[in-house]
Amino acid sequence: MEQVFGRPKALSEKRLHYCPGCTHGIIHRLVAEAIDDLGIQDKTIGVAPVGCAVLAYDYFNLDFQQAAHGRAPAVATGIKRVLPDRFVFTYQGDGDLASIGMAEIVHAAARGEKITVIFINNAIYGMTGGQMAPTSLPGQKTTTSPYGRDINTVGYPIRVAEMLTTLDGPAYISRVSVHDPKHINKAKEAIRKAFEVQIQGLGFSLVEVLSTCPTNWGLSPREALKWLEENMIPYYPLGVFKSPEEVSKVGA
Amino acid sequence: MAKVIFDSERCKGCELCVSVCPRGIIRMSNTLNSQGYHSAEVVEQDKCISCAFCARICPDTVIEVYRETKGKVS
Amino acid sequence: MAERVMMKGNEAVAEGAIRAGCRYFFGYPITPQNEVPEYMSRRLPKIGGVFIQAESEVSAINMVYGAGGAGGRAMTSSSSPGISLKQEGISYIATAEVPCVIVNMARGGPGLGGLTPSQSDYFQAVKGGGHGDYHLIVLAPWSVQEMVDLVGLAFDLADKYRNPAMILGDAILGQMMEPVTFKSEPIDPKDLPAKPWATVGLSGERKPNLINSLGLLPEHLESINLRLQEKYKKIAENEVRFEGTDVDDADLVVVAYGTTSRVAKSAIDQARKDGKKVGLFRPITLWPFPTKQIQELAAAGKRFLVVEMSAGQMVEDVRLAVNGEASVEFFGKLNGAIPTVEEVYREIMSRF
To answer: Which residues of chain C have pLDDT under 70?
Structure first.
């Protein structure tokens, strides 16, 4: 018997605290698999956010820094500038990255900071109990938009991948989803590519991963995957928004 | 021999694996694990095709997947 | 060999930092400290260092957090309103025990305040500043020379105790020019002691290093706080610095730091000529505060006059030290102007 699937080395054995069916766990594993594939576990430093993934440092066999809410790209910048030959990534949710940390992510991207950002978009604040996020969909009910997100009073969701693509600093930006095994494979490819961009020193890389929050969406884990596919993907189209030629070759 | 092994203590019973198994052989056990969840299991191991869809979608790294190597051309 | 040059306080603190092995500077423009980032932007790229003009003070301090956590000697500088913005990051840095240096060339507040010198950031500097029970090591230079000397000390103490250290200057100390002597050879960062706790990538068999300030479980949070308090006790026991002038025979001791202590010194010299027994006590470390030394002076029967460019902040620590054993009076300026020698002299003379 040969093993076709097991725990990646860069992922620790600690049990995840996430709710049943929350796709954070899948994305953690994909990041660890990419790090294993590229053989960079001893050269990688992670930066954890504030939000559900605040304890991300417990789940990786990697050196880690825990950042204040939204500040992970600034912290990663500091690490990367001291250790330019290491690989630095942030793992941030939508409240962290697209609300309180919007300045930090935009400027890290604009500087072409050679870091990799794993951006988890599940259209809601998970940790604090299901409040409206900058990425909550029009009409989406949350604990602070109990009548549904009203675009006339609170405006529109932010498409982070597209917005950052308008900048010259980023080298690689894509949006992926983890709602079925096929898309999970694609998400892994994207994450690996984002790390390769950093390894080659090509610039800033970001993968926006559409993710679920069954608990705060009020759906079963299986229903949540379906909701993501039917509601989030139409608003947040999947694809590669920016990719340097050098990396396209590597990934081909 | 088992092709798919579930670490039932890690399972949170989310059933995502059940939803993606092409052979429909994953079911939720009747017993509770120490976390209080009905964990996923496969009884009919011989029907497993080692596609690892279940393991890929499992958020809790519960599942290890193996494949027969016997008779395989190396 | 000692070099003697004329320098502005802002440039001296920058050059002093570089000579102390600082290679990472993250800042954001704010008057009256702009010569610090400008100097760093000229010098650091030439010596293999990094200068980043961050998008905000908030980002700058978080870059310091990352760089310090990765083992580099990192610094940021700002002035009062900008330091307020950095407080979140400083609280994280103090809790995660990341060494770094923060320079505050204080200006008048509150709010947007003014651009002229002030000492109204004393509370913010010595009482923590942000949320939670923590302390910075706070050093208060009174000359351009001390900008150089104390910034070097700040880096050494920061590394020694894994604690953020602050240089608390003001607009006048940053802007004025004085001769400076660089007493020691510049430090090559490569020669600094290793930081085995830094996040540099897993090597060998060691467990992952973690820079963190989260303590979700009560017992974990308590252990973090107890560890910090234990460290602060050690710092308070070992690192108090101060200077006393004409204190021994004095009836009245003027307590002042930084710019005000220079003015007070001149006023005291004048009063001495008039035969008044007055001395100067100048805290150099504002935290740890020279509590014991002031206690001893109170026990010796001396009276105190505290002079500050504030509504009365350090005076509270003097009163705590004295604990009702002696009279503590206060003279403060709130208009963003330095008290004149004449004013302080009158204040002294009116107490004899």
So the answer is: 1
